[in-house]
Write a structure and sequence with these properties.
443 residues; alpha/beta; Four Helix Bundle (Hemerythrin (Met), subunit A); Rossmann fold; 3 domains; six-stranded antiparallel β-sheet; five-stranded parallel β-sheet; 15 helices; 11 strands
Length: 443
Amino acid sequence: MKNIKLSLWALLLGLTGLWLLADTLAPVPFTYFSFRTVFMQYSGVIGIGVMSVAMLLAVRPKWPEPWLGGLDKMYRLHKWLGITALVVSIIHWWWAQGTRWMVGWGWLTRPARKAAAVTLGPLEGWLRGQRGLAEDVGEWAFYAAVALIALALVKRFPYHLFTKTHKWMAAVYLVLVYHTVVLFKFSYWSQPLGWLMAALVLGGTVCAVIVLLRRVGASRRVSGAIESLVWYPDLRVLETAVRLQDGWAGHEAGQFAFVTSSRREGAHPYTIASAWNAEERRIVFITKALGDHTGRLREQLQVGAAVTLEGPYGCFNFRDRKPRQIWIGAGIGITPFIARMKQLAQTRGVQEIDLFHPTADFDQQAIDKLTADAAAANIRLHVLVSSRDGRLDAEQIRAAVPQWQSASIWFCGPPGFGQALRKDFLANGMASADFHQELFQMR
């Protein structure tokens, strides 16, 4: 999370600093309209800048994952960038449209336009001639962006509809690029601000085209077929094994993939619950019936059906130099730990590991499998059923693992539960870098 915040603030401060090198928020003479002119430029720079970086993250590039902590963290940054763009765009829109309204109401008097003092070059003259159209399409693109970003933030809006509507942000972005290029102060282009903005809008434009052509992650897609399905009724959990065709580069325990089993539904992210064996080319996913899509999987999926995988993604990879690790897999959050146990059963790690599995549901067959995996990987397993053992908290973990101060914590489960544990452990002296939490929310 620290690197996400650093990245967001570095972008905002960097754009602000370069803009201040090119212009000022204190024009002389300082009037409403002179300030409006420079503020419109500044807010436009911030708005298109954050949207460009958000568009870059939308194509799921691999290279930022190590710095940002995985694709799940990248999507959190993508969300914050979207919210920032929304707020800045509303302010930008108000200074443009609100001023026109206030002039129309007689609250403000627009100053007389000054005649151009210099002859414009061909390019600058052409851009000036496009201003009216750029303002009009920019306004309508703003309304579309507000609607699409608002839908993305509404959790009750179905995921498959979200993925279908949200891709149209790429088209809206391209309209806003035109709006920006035309209305961007021409003198900025010859300065560092202009160079950065050119790189951002060019990169964002390429990424927008990739999104519109549905080529996101195309080089990391592999076809496969469902090999087996196991349903655990007491847990409402489905275990799906997929045999892949050639092309899968392999994965680390803790990573996830986007799985498409229905073109109508589109790709959904699932954590991989198996270690990789290149000879078997078999991957296992464990999904819990928590919503409309996962609730229908049991009826929709069939052995032999074709599926497509894209990935792997994520940096929840259990890498650190601590002599001990504490794992907390709450409910269906146990999935990445199953994959890691299967990997450790083959490689035999040297760390001491305690795995806590708090769950509201209990199925003896599933617990027997989990116990066998833990024994094979030489891991101490703590199963806590909430109706019998109460709610797991940080104090219980410290009591069960007296050497917790020499350990790192790896958490996967409900976000609020993870945040509460993190706050407690950090308050008791644990370093922030030693608490790892997967943010498995793609919107």
